[in-house]
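note to self: the first set is below, dont mix up w the second
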Amino acid sequence: MKKHIYVYPFLNFSKLSRLMKFFVISFLLLVSVRCNDTPNPVKKELNEIAKEIMTNAKYCAFITIDSLGVANARAMDPFLPDENFTVWMATKPSSLKVKQLQGNNNVTLYYFDEQSVSYVTLQGIASIINSRNEKEIFWKKEWKNFYKNRTSDYTLIKFIPKTGSVISEKYKILGDSITWKTPTINF
């Protein structure tokens, strides 16, 4: 005797049940195709991404260590990094930064770009430069109210990085999922 397919309970579907299963399966297929179809972010070198973040952040935190070993952070208006990631900034010769750099010239720069949820941290050496030539090159007209006398009230900080780290949601550059260790750049 021939059995009808509806005798098997797992094949016995009502019209409504079949219609719902069709929609659920169609939805799952559509979602999986859309997820796999998402374009990958633009491929860029880590250095290029770091410069983009630094440019978009505009300001950075300049972090020094004082004689007691305490970190001191302050906002700075730096020039954009050059091809070697050297960063120039200005300060007053009488500032606490200058005193701290004379005692310990190891510095960290931290840039955060809110729009792309990305940051760059650079560790390196900073030095005070008081050359007239460099002071002419590295001057921003927006600083005129801060430095009344460009000869005596204004000095430069030259930062040369040794290492850096980058996190970028935009470019899917994230830290290790367990240790959170960030991708690094060695200069």
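second set (the one i keep forgetting abt)
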Amino acid sequence: MTPKLFLTVLMFLLFNRFFAQESLIIDYSGIKRNHIYIEAYSVKPDYSEFNFSINYEYSIGSKRKVSMRLGFYPSFEDKGYVFPLTINWLTAPQKKHHFEYGFGPVLGFERDTKNNRTYFVFGGALVPLMYRFQKQKGIFFRTGINVFVSYPTLISPSVSLGYKF
């Protein structure tokens, strides 16, 4: 190979590499950080049937792959309140179809009407395993299972509908 041909090939490869790197840069700034949604459970951590929670989620990090969630649902049987807290990871936030997984505690307050006292309760851990359809902003949908890790462990199918802003 002549030096002239070698330099031409080398320059082509270097410029091609630089331009290819620029095309791989993804702009995540259009992906909104705030989410609110209502989630319906078929079974909830206190083993009663069907309930719903109201949730707020905030995406952190520059790529919006990690989010923190705070939920709330009333426990009508014992006149208490339950707060699921999770840290979630989302695959490919710039796309529409996602797998979401996370982990966090389920905390609550229960009212003892006999002794007229309120108790803080650790209900176990929550592991959401979800499919999520969402665009960079606007309405989103998620469905899957929530695994409540306590004694005994409970698997609860759930569905959510929310808004990302």
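remember for set 2: The two ends are 58 Å apart (CA to CA).
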